[in-house]
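Tutorial handout. Part one gives the primary structure; part two gives the three-dimensional structure as tokens.
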Amino acid sequence: MKSIKTIIRNKTTKVDGTAPIYFQYSYDREKRTLLKTGKYIEPAFWSEEKQKVKPSHPAEEQINDFLKSQKLKLEKIIDDALMLKQDPTINFVIEKYKTEVLLNAPKVNGFYDILDQYVETAKSRISKGIISDYGTLKQYLQDFEEFNKTKVSFATITKASTYDDFLNYLKTQVKNQRGGKGLKVNSVGKHAKNLKAFLNNCIRREIIPHTDLRFMKKLSEKAFRSILMKQNWNVYINSTSARNRKKKLSATSSLLVQKPDCVFPITLAYLKTTLKRILSASALSKRRTW
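Part two.
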């Protein structure tokens, strides 16, 4: 008896941990084939028993509706063949599925094409200022591609490593209005917020698979302080003595305190407290007091 099941293949997961969803068409007990749906899901969100996405998934309704629609089209191919007394063999169904289902599915354009479409459709409901911000964001992403030698796509920008590199580029390389390099905290946060809003829209519209974007957290001065500390560890950890560490740290801290509009605002007391904890772990620091 001909049958169709909706399954996932755990053995062929992508680097982001999602597995492809297939329709398994069984011609008989021995002959069967897998038909791609183009959708991916984390295995933890898949119900093998119900052959559908679990309610706990953020895009559960959209994905299940899509799968239901595609499965109905596949079932119609088989039913129509049987009504016409045609044999719905494996090859017959594969060919029909490709031409009548997959080829009629919405085409996905490139990253920047979809970004342009998103901005164009949003013009009637968002301000001209935000429209301009998205144009600037697009330019920054293209400049980042050239600077970092990394092609920006949905696959790359939704990776935490690429996203972090992009933010670091905004904070350290983009020319600012003062003639220097590096945008202020608020400017970086604005572009990060707009980028995340665009990606979430693409997920809701099923242009890209559901992706966990929780790593795209709201920027804060505390986060920038953490980044500053990591970037400056080598300045004083690699110093020849604790005295030099303290001297270099104080010089760096004083500079930052004197410039409150610096990209990485931080207090001298904060740096001293943190350094004290590090030095206390070494034998050298035991002989010194603050």
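Part three, for discussion. The longest strand covers residues 32-41. DSSP finds ten helices and five strands in the chain.
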